[in-house]
Amino acid sequence: MDYYKRLVIRCLLLFVPPVVFYHIFKYPTIFGSYLLLKILNINFVLTGSTIIINDHYLTLSRPCIGDYAYLLLYMLIILTANLGIVRRIYIFIVGSLMILFVNILRIGLLCYLLFHFSFESFQAVHMLFWDLLSSVIVVGIWFLLVWLFKIKAIPVYTDVKKIWKDITSYK
Known about the structure:
By secondary structure, this protein is mainly α. The chain contains 7 helices and 3 strands. The chain has helices spanning 3-12, 18-39, 62-65, 67-78, 85-116, 119-148, 157-169, and strands at residues 45-47, 50-53, 56-59. It has a 3-stranded antiparallel sheet, with helices on one face. A hairpin with a 2-residue loop joins strand 1 (45-47) and strand 2 (50-53).
């Protein structure tokens, strides 16, 4: 298929709403968190997507599930030139499993803090993750994927460079 046809298809694939990722990863996140809390021997009650610890109700909302983290990973993969469809899918699966694992560990850590320490310690670490670490973790996972899969293209830049080269060399 022609490069520009693939580029148009890739651009159209960018219009996936984040709620799609929420629905895909909601139950794996809840189930994984449930298992980790059992392993950590934390006394809790799980009702739907709410974890109850020491009379505190923690609802695993869309931001807790990390739908935008998966969306960012998806967009980075879609915006990277010179990857075949099978390779894109494989990279997304591996990256998503990494995000899921880190997210479950994050939820486990926060629940551990709430169970063994205080709501204030929970809130402080929660805000640290929310404000700073969430984006850093996704970018870190992206760089790890680039290294693992030996990705040479740079999202957006490689396409812009090719388009510019084609425009300036057109006669």
